[in-house]
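Dear U.,

For the methods section draft, I wanted the exact inputs and outputs in one place so we can describe them consistently. I've listed the two proteins in the order they'll appear in the manuscript figures. Please don't edit the token lines directly; just add comments below if something needs changing.

First protein:
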Amino acid sequence: MNGVLFNGQQAISSDDVSILDSNQDSHVFSIGITKERTRDNIVNVTLENCQCFISIEHQAQVDNTMFQKTMDYDEMSYLQQFFQYQSHLLLIKGVMTLVAYYGQKPWKHARTYKDMMGPIPPTLEQYMNVESYPLIEMRYMDEERFHTPELKELVRGLKYLYESQERYVQGF
């Protein structure tokens, strides 16, 4: 998280992170359906005396449904917190889902609802809920942003692998 979010600066320490259950479910009362989802991982982070949830979804291949998946995951996290807020007056924590993409092909699929929409009346555009999810293409990361040798090697290895494959394809 430090490498991606804070340009390698140590803003979050391991003492600031607690792992949460990545299985989520929620009941949609209006239509009597229970939704179940499993995130790759989700943690509770304390940063600047505030708490929030940060999830990282790992993608090895381009997935054109990733935007909707991240929206579902985040909505379920907020919904679970909302029910706790109503019954126990616990404050709701912000939720953020990062998508770490390790694949070879550039990510060209929609990252917002707006990317999938036709024209929106300009007078209403500021009111549309069309937010994006953060997508991190690991092949473009600077490995020096990471402090652990394993992450540095992962990024270096991906770059080497993809550059080698591109040179091989160009040779034909």
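Second protein (the one for the lower panel):
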Amino acid sequence: MVVTDGDGRVLYCSPAQHGSCADITHARQLGLVRPLDGGPALEILADAGYQGLGAQTGGRVVTPPHRKFKKNAPNWYEEMHERQRKAHSSRRIRVEHGIAHLKNWRALARHLGRREHISDTVQAIAGLLSHQQTADLTSARQM
């Protein structure tokens, strides 16, 4: 799980878990639900893997709209759903870019080491990327 700010800079990268785990379960196991429920009023743009977390956090986690009709949806519903989905996607694009910057590092793109070490590798690269993005931001402000 990766958390970025509004400009796509990496703020947090969770440790990897062994085996397959749903996104929402991972967030609950890390204990991220309780601080969001009573914490500051902020908005977290999440993907569809976190649907249902918005109700548990007082609406702070915003996910793409859930489909109510599986088959034979009315035309008005299809159009409304597509507009809402595109609006969410447009707002979330910077988050996706931040995650893409993380995935572009060769050590993650072509990980050849042991699975037991991937979590340490991800954490190290997230730290390097965060430092690089902070340095770029600082140098841009000095110009």
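Candidate sentences for the figure legend, describing the second protein: The two ends are 34 Å apart (CA to CA). Residues 2-136 form one domain.

Thanks,
Y.
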